[in-house]
Design brief:
There is one protein chain. The chain is α+β, with helices and mostly antiparallel strands. The chain has one domain. Helix content is 18%, strand content 20%. The chain has helices at 34-37, 89-103; strands at 21-25, 28-32, 55-58, 61-64, 70-72. The strands form two sheets. The chain has a three-stranded antiparallel sheet with strand order 3-4-5, with no helix packed on it. The two termini are 23 Å apart.
């Protein structure tokens, strides 16, 4: 999954924790590259209890990794976040075709 903001693709990290961070935007899980983490206007969703942007979205729930608050994801959860402007239509089509092959979907 590329960075939701700039479209950079994640590479294999060196040993240790990945510098990429997860977040939630519009009820969808997104990745944020190290360069975009320095930007302060990412407009990630925040926790209604503590205000933290350290959220994860899974199985119809959004959980805050700071305070532990869990809430149901809003209707429409599971929708893909908007494609970053740097991500080409060709790459998106290639990924969709690969998923269709792996999942046995015929279009």
């Amino acid at each position: 999954m590329p960075c939701f903001s700039c479209g950079a693709r994640q590479t294999d990290p060196v040993r240790g924790a990945s510098p990429w961070k997860r977040g939630v935007r519009g009820e969808a899980q997104v990745l944020v590259c190290p360069d975009c983490q320095r930007t302060h206007d990412l407009e990630l969703d925040t926790c209604s209890s503590c205000g933290s942007a350290a959220l994860i979205c899974r199985l119809g729930e959004v959980e805050c990794r700071s305070c532990g608050a869990v809430r149901p994801a809003a209707a429409g959860e599971g929708a893909l976040p908007p494609r970053p402007s740097g991500l080409s239509k060709e790459l998106a089509d290639e990924v969709e075709a690969a998923l269709n092959r792996v999942l046995g979907r015929v279009h």
